[in-house]
Amino acid sequence: MESVAVYSDADAMAAHVRLADHAVRIGPAAPAESYLRIEGIVRAALETGSDAVHPGYGFLSERAAFARAVIAVGLVFVGPDPDTIEAIGDKLHARRLARDVGVVAVPGSLERAMIERPDQVAAITAEAEAIGFPLLVKAAAGGGGRGMRRVASVRELVESLADGSREAASAFGDGAVYLEREVRPARHIEVQLLGDANGNVVAIGERDCSLQRRHQKLVEEAPAPGLTGADRAHLHELAVRVARAAGLRNAATAEFLRGPDGSFFFLEVNTRLQVEHGVTELVSGLDIVREQFHLAAGRPLSASAMDAAARAADPRGHAIEVRVSAEDPGRDFAPTPGRLTSWTMPSGPGVRVDTALEAGDQVPAEYDNLIAKIMVHAGSRDDAIDRLRRALDETEVGGIQTTLPFHRSVAHDPSFRAGEVHTEWVAEHWDGAADFKRAAGLAMLAAGIASAEQHGSSGRAGGPMIGPRVASIRTDAGGADGIWRTAGLEDGVDRWPR
Amino acid sequence: MATLSEGRRADGRLAARERDGRSPGIPERDAVRVRLAPASAHAGLEAVTVDSGADQGSIVLDGSTSQTTIRRLGPERSKLTTGGSVIRVLDRASSTQPRDAGIVRREVLVDGWRVVVDLEPAARAALRARARRGPAAGTANGPAEVRAMIPGVVVALPVAVGDRVSAGQKLVIVEAMKMQNELLAPRDGVIDRVNVVTGARIEVGDVLLVIS
After folding, report:
1. Cα gap A184→A422, rounded to integer Å
2. Is some CB atom of chain A closer than 8 A to the CB atom of B20?
């Protein structure tokens, strides 16, 4: 199989361009003028004589219009049917679908909230009270927290619905919002699904993605810790039931929340490959992207896919992924685009690194901040955590700050080892500023000693050390720098998927 | 031989003082003063002065002292031993050029963190500090330079010269990596100067505006 890469000017030197058999420039760095231009990408596919288009997991991967455009010119779209993408992308539709097949969704509304007339306001207020506060206003077309509002009491309800609807309309072109109970603390667990043209759908296993910040996943693992075989089989069956009802073909992921009492609530379906699919590949032994191509060619589920599905409730081994991102975990995960000066990735048994970068590369400010996925695989979760520590010790990134200190802390945290993960974990267990301060003290000492050695006038090069003679550590005048805060996602639909 | 005794500050910053009676801050001939560069500036800047020939020292952080020894493994690499753990350090010339001649900027990688430090002979640092100690010293009432902590493009500038602002108020909104990032005022004051306009591309360390 020959491959064709598409690239913007910002990516002209990128690894996917170098590795592909052919590469086509599709425009300048701005996503709206390159990676989001459906006609430009379809034209590149036609001009290079391509047979199929794999949408990856960025930009247009969940856009029904893109899938339709690819199919309209006679090419194969490697992903679910456009009608499925569209139908299940509407979260209210997905919630109704789950109800129709007896799968419990997060408690909340099944129709869009209306607040134009007094009787509608009365009806939605009664519904909110039945769901219970605090609750969430969510956008039906949503993603990435856009249009989402937390409502603590009935007094804030109408205003939050109006605000959420306005934000959803501007982000997605669809102002439909609905109500959902806030499950907190919750675990975020998702099921990898594959479906063929004959209507067969199987679950390949689940992933726990509870360690999140701003609704962005930071650490994922497979299988989800602490589930019994019966829990697992039950969860997989719920996911398959929803996917079958939606007519799923190819690959998708059904997301669930697990409440403190252990019950599973259906959340939504993502109709594409997920960033974190690698942990499922490590545990199942399946190449999910390869399966996607087989399924897109109209073949039935492969023997290896059926094998993996048969073992899914009783997985062997454990895999963990950490997302290395260009973000400063000491400064509220503020973005840190820039040039990489050093770049050492781990290797060795049970370690997989998915990245496209090397030393000297620029991490552009135009695109997502994910720069590498470091995955480990071992016979047990404990061994996988030990392996993760070792892998992170080998990893070194210079030039920009990354999320590595956070991941090192996770790998050493007793509650993570105990499997006590939930969606509030990061806020409860991570104090980035304190960890930075500790490291800064060591860094200043190391740099100071090195410099004193190199520039000292005593001419004792290589001679015995006379010490210890560190004079003082003093506080300086203090920085007048302001405080950074992330306001919101610039373009909800087009951000890198969660 | 100087050792460090415990120094505790209410804000948990690094603090230490000497036990042998030598007043802190008076540098010896070859001493080097190290401080965090603006790109690494978090709340609570610290500076450390290291004498030539030192191969170990104490760090006092949040009230607890840890003895640290360093072993050089090469021109850029060393190992720190502190509190029973061994920490690998990579320390090299930073790609960012320092602003003042005589100050050497280095990038130090430790435990996944990237710490950018400025090194300067302590004697020279003391001279500079004395020269700066004028009427507009960096006290709580002096002007505050608000610097860019992230690179990106200014998408909104809700304040103008002469505006009175209060701590926590939105000053600049910068877009980077598909996120909008708000820069908030570090303290109350009046906007004295604005160095950027909407649409401007900014780099880490740029002075965006000044509050007096």
Report:
1. 9
2. no
